[in-house]
Amino acid sequence: MKAPSGLIAAFLITLATLAPAWAVDGKIALVAAENFYGNMAQQIGGDRVSVTSIMNNPDQDPHLFEVSPGIIRQIAAAQIVVYNGADYDPWMERLLAVTPKPGRAVIVAAELLNRKAGDNPHLWYDPSTMPAVAGALAAAFAAADPAHKDDYAARLKTVLASLESLSGKIAALRGKFAGLPVTASEPVFGYMADALKLAMRNERFQLAIMNDTEPSARDLAAFEQDLKTHQVRVLFYNKQAQNNIVRHLIDLARTSNIPVVGVTETAPPGLSYQDWMLMQLDETQRALAGPSS
Q1: Are the CB atoms for 123 and 6 separated by under 8 Å?
Q2: Contact 182, 200 (CB under 8 A)
Q3: Contact at 8 Å (CB) between 188 and 122?
Q4: Contact 243, 269 (CB under 8 A)
Q5: Reduced to 3 states, what is the DSSP secondary structure of residue 98?
Q6: Are 230 and 49 in contact (CB under 8 A)?
Q7: Degrees (nearest 5) of the Cα angle 244, 260, 234?
Q8: Torsion over CA of 29, 31, 35 and 38, rounded to 10 degrees?
Q9: 96 pLDDT more than 80
Q10: Which residues of 78-105 are buried (b: 16+ CB within 10 A; e: fewer)?
């Protein structure tokens, strides 16, 4: 996800000719690195914000993302920027550094949660993330547009209530399935598995895949053994990033009649963050419940 330095340097010349663009058609201009943060911004900002989400294709491997001149232009013009942090989207930090704008608000999910590089960066699967991001967004909108601060506060209240409903679903599944052993190709779903109190196995293997390194033969063999001997109830995998080893394990799970649940790093088009999470939780519930479901 690196932004080529030559591209940035060349494009700065163009940026110098741009007039400040705090709003689009009178709306607050917000850029989100990931589309689920953009969706949260839209839910709170309503028709008073113009939201651009950079990473918005659930069929694309987010690790292969490349910065374009159009993206640099959008960030340069944004009044509010929100991104994940924890070294998940480091290109955002570089682009913000070379496109400074006085008064621009920057919201970093990792900073809100006191997470850092080296922690699991898939923060949107942590149930505590979106309430914190939603609150920060509402505050940023109110600061940028004080005349409508009550509208943003009202929408924030609605969003937090919907996130409480999501938490209720998590609590119900936790009460039914806590302690069941599961595994994953990489730790995308890790925070949600923790919230469900599932017993995650093969974590060294997952870190190797996430960091694009070769898992050890010992870790691969342990993973295979877990599938063959039904030591796990479900295999979670990242639909957007698979290599030959991961595809082999998915095939082995299916051959061994272990349910396989695909999760994503980008929300599908047309779904709110809440509906996206509920959809994946429903699939998880069916998989954990087994054939009798």
Answers
A1: no
A2: yes
A3: yes
A4: no
A5: helix
A6: no
A7: 115
A8: -40
A9: yes
A10: bbbbbbbbbebbebbeebbebbebeebb
